[in-house]
Amino acid sequence: MDHDNMHNMPPPSPSSSMSNHTKPHMMMMHMTFFWGKNTEVLFSGWPGTSSGMYALCLIVVFLLAVIAEWLAHSPVLRVGGSTNRAAGLAQTAVYTLKTGLSYLVMLAVMSFNGGVFIVAIAGYAVGFFLFGSTTFKKPSDDRKTTELLPPSSGCVC
Length: 157
Description:
With 157 residues, the protein is mainly alpha-helical. The protein is built from five helices and two strands. The protein has a two-stranded antiparallel sheet. Helix 3 packs antiparallel against helix 4 and helix 3 packs parallel to helix 5. The two termini are 45 Å apart.
């Protein structure tokens, strides 16, 4: 087809298969931060429009971030000098679980809901405070006290 004929063609019409699958009750996906309980986080239709389910969503995202941070500072990940295959498998399993939870938190934040963003950051902060900071460490720990952020800490995204 030559270049002149392309300008005379009508624009393509929407495919009939696309128009048949459009649901009138689909929620709009936000591309900027917004505030409100009417959002979708991680799963289609969840938490929906219920205030109670939105609160549960915030609690779940907070706990996912805390658990991911707990796993990031797990002693299993710090086992050094061991060539034991079982220890290596345990390290791999914990690291994989931590990475998966971190990605779930990242996907939740991608809902662009301001509340979800705040609880995700708060969850990582509380998790680091409890498990990574020197606040609850004994002075006799083998780790350096000046090391604030170990390489396995935080979101892998």
